[in-house]
Amino acid sequence: MTILVTGATGTVGRQIVAQLVERGAPVRALTRNPAAARFPASVEVACGDLAAPQTLAPALEGVTALHLITFGGDDHAPLPTGPDIVALAAKAGVRRVSVLSSWDETSVEEALRAGDLGWTQLLCVEFMANAYDWAASIREEGVVRVFGNHPGAVVHEADIAAVAVAALVDDGHAGQAYMLTGPEALTPAERVRLLGDAVEREIRFEELSEEEYRASMRAAGEGDDMIEFAVQLGADPPGASSVVLPTVEKVTGRPGRTFAQWAAENAAAFRS
Ligand SMILES: NC(=O)c1ccc[n+]([C@@H]2O[C@H](COP(=O)([O-])OP(=O)(O)OC[C@H]3O[C@@H](n4cnc5c(N)ncnc54)[C@H](OP(=O)(O)O)[C@@H]3O)[C@@H](O)[C@H]2O)c1
Questions:
Q1: Which of 1, 59, 153, 186 is the most exposed place for a label (fewest CB within 10 A)?
Q2: What is the pLDDT of residues 232-266, one digit of tens each?
Q3: pTM check: above 0.90
């Protein structure tokens, strides 16, 4: 029994690999660039590209459980190759699949819904790790500038991973769509204060006007679609984004990790 993790070098995938290794499970990690990837010694590394499914057959050999991402490429474009990936997985003998979904469903979820593999969908509103977007301005200027200060029930990537691991290893999760949140809803200003506690430094919090925010995103080279999406999210986030759910604790048996914990674990990235 081998578990194949796609997105294994990413924010969530790295955690899934680490937690599977901790449980003593045989792990194979997929990457497009094995030479650049760093994994624990017991992890088998496989080269493959989800956007080019013909490259995946060797990586899927002997695999019984599969963690999937739904995007391909560094611009996070939705994968159009879901039917091929799911057909190859079924042919290889995969029996359990966990899928980390994006905001919109893709061909991956569509193909899984049409097929008969047991699969578990992981949905999240906002990762705690998005705070990395603030790291440069905190290190360089001691400030965070955001548009909108609405509470969000941000979730720790290790908790997303813990739910994925349960879905990959344990029975009883097939057919579930798990919406994952952290244990509290925090505004960006509250998260910035907790980061300040972690780095033992006062961090200023500045709210941008919509125009200032649009200008800052344009200056950062973001395209029109991304700017509209981010402005909409900052001005009027979906109601669900501030609702704390008990899913992580129900599935993993332990409370969701707090943002204070995330900040302490990642403090080095915010120190100048
Ligand atoms: N950030 C949030 O708040 C949030 C909220 C809800 C949902 N999400 C969703 O979560 C997902 C992001 O997850 P993440 O942060 O863990 O991703 P990430 O850190 O950006 O990871 C990128 C990973 O994707 C792999 N990858 C990219 N294109 C690939 C391809 N064509 N074939 C194979 N592997 C490929 C990369 O592998 P290599 O480079 O090693 O090949 C890398 O491991 C997205 O679907 C996003 O929509 C995010």
A1: 1
A2: 999 999 999 999 999 999 999 999 999 999 999 99
A3: yes
